[in-house]
Every structure is written in structure tokens, then in C-alpha cells.
Amino acid sequence: MHLKNYFIFLLFFTLSSCVSVNKYNEQQKVCLPPEKLKEDVDFAYSKLKETHPQLYWYIAKEDLDHKFDSLKHTITKPLTPLQFYFKLQPVIAGIREGHLSLRIPSKMITKKEIRTLEGKKGMFSRFGYYVEGDRLFIVENKDSIQHIPPGTEILCIDQVSVSDYIKKYRKLISSDGFNTTFHPYYLKDVFFNYYVAEKGYEDHATLETVYKGQKKIYELTRETKSEDDLKKEKENKKRTEEKKVNDYIAFNNSYNRNFKFLDQDSSIAYIKIKSFSGDYSAKFYQETFGKIKKAGSSYLIIDIRNNYGGSLQEINNLYSYLSPEPYTLIRPSQVTSATSPIKTNYFRKTNVLQYILKTLAYPAFFFGQTFSTYKKDGRFYYKNKADKLSKPNKDAFIGKVFVLINGGSFSASSIFSAKLKNDKRAVLVGEETGGANDGTVAGFYSYQTLPNSKIDLPIGVLLVQPNIDFTDTKKGVVPDVKISGTMQDILNQKDPEMDWIIKDIEKEKNKKQ
């Protein structure tokens, strides 16, 4: 492309991007008439029935029909897309599929606004939170912002009660089935996502708080990053080999995966996995289990608390380091039809250049997905390596395994935990997982957009179930040893679940002496 034409194209693309952002934001202010909103309700339900392979797992068809019909009867006046979202999403959440959720419509920001925000520190994201009932607490303040002490309860934000927000937002989320532990973990992580989606990116907030009976007001502002902050960020973004293998997370300056020995003789190995991201995981496990084998460790602790899941291939590979014999991780993944894998809205959210590239790649995508399904006994299934017999890795760990789980262990974490428990390969310690024991619907998504409100509805395409004897409890994976930490444990930096494991190992060691 000639240089002059390139700059003309770049200018056109930049202007069109700004226009599309402004157009989208204007659409969010428009109130849609009831008949158009009801069309969106019908569209959403029709796409769910068409694409979701286990829609009536936790709710009877007649009950879900009633929920959608009742919703339409409540739509009697024009609503903005955001107002409509807060009416439709609770019905979607009532299906009790943790992966199934509308994307909240929020104001889009321009590239200029993004650059401005990148030059400022987060206002709410720099704290760690804890939800207990309808109450929100700060349990971490790494930067000592205004010296707000951990344990402080946030009562109001800009004179609006936090408990009102929590009651409102809780209706928007669901775990898999009738799980009882997932909500507080997920809610503490998404509370301010919902809040910002409603309020926008503001530069100031007034917090009314209470700490040890004393009420206090804090004025939070979005601080500008210093030269040192920007320099440190730039340095942190450099991808060293260590950062790659341990999957460095620049946002909070931490690693997704960590490994260490907990004692001097290396008899206890510990692996912490925050999410099954898949990035460089194969190399991490190869190096880690090589070290464990060389050290001759007798005990292994795998910590997947607060791990919302991720790559199925990663947990299949990890399981190869734990299984003493050939295994099959999951059962064949069911889909609703042979064409389900291509109903993914392939061209969604693409700019002009991406659209051109995707158009060129589409034939490969189409044929790859078309031949990815097969039919057996009148049902359609998606081909997956994880449903084939796998061999143990040559460095597979043969000692005793403990796995730490809690309500924040979801999706792939639950599949991994359920398989370990079924095979009696590990002692599970902690809380019931947030994801279901008998599987979930996810894999990849069919991205639908409601025609009038333009709200996105990603629908899981694959029914993914661990290769186990199902419990049919419609709940999470229940630990062998039930221990639930408290907020006070977090504030005191205590870990009762880990303490129990260490004491149990010490008992076993003493018996062997």
C-alpha cells in the first residue's frame, strides 16, 4: 500500500472507530418500546433452546417457560438497554448455569479516554474485598491508600447503600446448580465491574465506612501515575522466561502459577494455580514435576482456591502428572447439532483490518469446525483430546496429594477436583466448589446479540463432564475435609485449610518414624 493511501486509510479507520463508539453510546441512552424489548426476550430464549446442550439441567422447561412469559408481562414501558439488562439477566441467572450470562451494556470509551485512564491509577481496583451477606469489607490495602485499615466495612458509596448494590447485583449471578459457596467469592470480584458499568469511569468517590465501631468518610480520587510508576510498569511488562513460564500478571504484579517446597528436606511440594490459563503451562508442569521427582517429595499440595477455571487441555496435562495409570479426563462433549460449532458469530467485534484477515481465514475455520463433530446414538458430540485415553507422564507424582478448594474453584477447577475425588487420587480440603461436580456447559461460545437492545449473549456450546460416576446432587464438589476460612483469618494472615494439611502430614510422618 502506498504510504499516502496508508495514512488516508488510517485516518478513515480512526474516525470510523470514534463514530462507532459515539453511536453505540447514544444507543445506550435511547429507551426502547416494550414490543421491541419483548422481541429480544423471545430471541434470547430461542437461541438458548437452539444452542445450549443442557438448558433444563437445573430448571424444568415449564418453569423456565413461565419465567420468560412472566418477564414479558412486566415490560410495560420503554426501557434503556441497561434497564432492560437488569430485568432479563435475573431470568438468565435462574437457569443456574454459571457460565451463562448476558454482557452488561456499559458506556464504551474512546482510545483517547483509554490513554487517559492508562495514565491514572485505579480507584477501586487497588483494594482487596470480602463479601459477607449483604456487607462489603476491605481486606487488603497494599498501597496504604489514605491508610484505610483492612477490616473496614464500606457502608455507602456516594450516599448509596452498599447493601442495596449487593442485593441488586446478587440477582445477576449464578453458580452451577444449587451450589451454596460461589456467590460471595464471585461477587467480591465483580462488584465494581457492575458498579462502573452503571456509573462510568469516575474520578472521585465518597466512601462512608466503619471500622471497629468508628465511622469515617474517605474521599477517593483517581490519582495520576508518577514517573516511577510508569517506569515500573514498563519494566514489569518485559516478558522474561520466568514470567512466561509462571504466567506473570502485570495488573497485580503477581504470577498465575507458583511452585515451592514447604520444608527444608523438600518432602512437601506446593503448587498454586490462580487460573488454568494455558499459557506456557506445559513447560511449567514439565519443569515443576521434574524438580519434585528429583527431590523425591512424598507429599504434594495443589492450591486451586479462587481459580475460576480455564483451559481443559491444561487440566488434562496436569492430571497426567498425578495419575498412576492411563485415564480419561472427560466424557465425550455433547452439542445440540452438527452445526453448533460454527454458530459462534465469527466476525463479531472486528475492525476493518481484522474483518479482512478473518475473511481470508474463514474457510479454514468453517471446515475445521464442520468436521469437528460426530453423531452417536442419535446425539451429536464435539471431538476433544481430553475425552481420549491418556497415559501418565514419565515424571508423574506417586506420593500423597492434597488439593485445596473453595467456593471460588469453578469450571475447569471443579472438573479437575471431581475427577481426583472420583479416582480417590487426592484428599480435597476446604469448601464445596463453585462449579458443579457433574460437569458444566462451556468449552467455547456462540456469541449472540439481541437485535434491538444490542446486548451480547454468549451461550456455551459444549456439555463438558468429568469421566466419573455422577453424584446427581446438582451441587459442587464436596471436600473430604470441610474447613471454611473466615475474614478474620484473612486479616490475621492465617490459613486454617493449609494448617490442617501440614498437621496431617506431620502426623503421618511421626507414625512412620
Structure description:
This protein is an alpha+beta fold and 513 residues long. It has 4 domains: 14-93, no CATH class; 120-221, Pdz3 Domain (Roll), CATH 2.30.42.10; 239-332 and 384-512, Alpha-Beta Complex (2-enoyl-CoA Hydratase, Chain A, domain 1); 340-382, no CATH class. The chain has 15 helices and 19 strands. The chain has helices spanning 3-29, 34-51, 61-74, 81-93, 111-118, 162-170, 182-199, 227-236, 241-245, 281-295, 312-320, 352-370, 412-422, 487-491, 496-512; strands at 127-132, 135-141, 152-157, 160-161, 204-211, 214-221, 248-249, 254-255, 257-261, 268-273, 299-303, 333-335, 373-376, 379-382, 400-405, 427-430, 440-449, 456-464, 481-482. The strands form 5 sheets. Strands 1, 2, 3, 4, 5 and 6 form a 6-stranded antiparallel sheet that branches. Strands 9-10-11-15-16-19 form a 6-stranded mixed sheet, with helices on both faces. Strand 13 (373-376) and strand 14 form a beta hairpin. Helix 6 (162-170) packs across helix 7 and helix 11 (312-320) packs parallel to helix 13. The protein is globular. It starts with a helix and ends with a helix. This is S41 family peptidase. One of its GO terms (molecular function) is serine-type peptidase activity. Residues 238-484 form the Tail specific protease domain. InterPro entries: ClpP/crotonase-like_dom_sf, Tail-specific_protease.
In short:
It comes from Chryseobacterium endophyticum. This protein has 4 domains: 14-93, no CATH class; 120-221, Pdz3 Domain (Roll); 239-332 and 384-512, 2-enoyl-CoA Hydratase, Chain A, domain 1 (Alpha-Beta Complex); 340-382, no CATH class. It has 15 helices and 19 strands.
